[in-house]
């Protein structure tokens, strides 16, 4: 049951985010600000007079895109560094991990706020910062998988056979770490999504006139009583993405345990 619910909660917001812009139409103002549902705008209008339905259909692509880009960068950097940390001498491992621990010690949102206060804000900064603060945790997951007892025994056997470092650590160790990395990615979606949304709430990412779900929620929060749909609908979609990603990751992990 939870597995099916997880997929529904994950897929519905993704479909809205990816397919919505194709059918949304114009997001230019169509009426009075915070108007109730009426002809031409079935969910009413937001504080800028834009059709709420068009805004909701158009505003998910940025959230999903930023989250996917940040995750891709985090794993693109974290997986190779984790393999290097596990495969090198202890002194190299210690230097890498202690340096990454310093990054891990800083709250992610605080890093974004400091950058914004120094004039560094915008979509590109948001994506790179969200990725950078996830790298230490990704490295730890990959390193732990690569240093697992079963994996180390196989690595030692391959060394005795005269296999190259590349063949051992990329050909074997990286494949062994694929399962833990995939599971971690499922749960990390919610973390990165929450960070991206929080940054947009605070105006650290996209401009205040954006149709991004998080920006729309923040911009219309004062009009919740007059026009609840513009806040509740994108909020429900964001919550669905986070909860759905966690439920799907849990179901995949549980299936892996039963199979094992």
Could you tell me the CATH topology label of the largest domain: MetI-like fold
What is the CA-based Rg, rounded?
22 Å
Q: Characterize the biggest β-sheet.
A: none
How many distinct domains?
2
Q: Quickly give the CATH architecture of the largest domain.
A: Orthogonal Bundle
Query: Residue-averaged pLDDT, rounded?
Result: 82
The backbone outline, from C-alpha atoms, is elongated
Q: Distance between termini?
A: 22 Å
* Helix fraction by DSSP (H/I, runs of at least 4): over 70%
Strand percent estimate: under 5%
Order of helices and strands: HHHHHHHHHHHH
Count of DSSP helices? 12
Number of beta-strand segments = 0
Relevant CATH superfamily of the largest domain? MetI-like
Ranges where pLDDT stays below 50 over 5 or more residues in a row are none
CATH level 1 class label of the largest domain:
Mainly Alpha
User: Could you say which structural class the secondary elements and strand pairing correspond to?
Assistant: mainly alpha
Describe it.
- The chain has helices at 2-23, 52-58, 60-87, 90-104, 108-117, 123-132, 135-146, 149-160, 165-176, 178-201, 213-220, 229-259.
- With 260 residues, the protein is mainly alpha-helical.
- Belongs to the binding-protein-dependent transport system permease family.
- The chain crosses the membrane at residues 52-83, 95-117, 123-142, 189-209, 229-249.
Properties at a glance:
single chain, 260 residues, mainly alpha, MetI-like fold, 73% helix, 0% strand, elongated
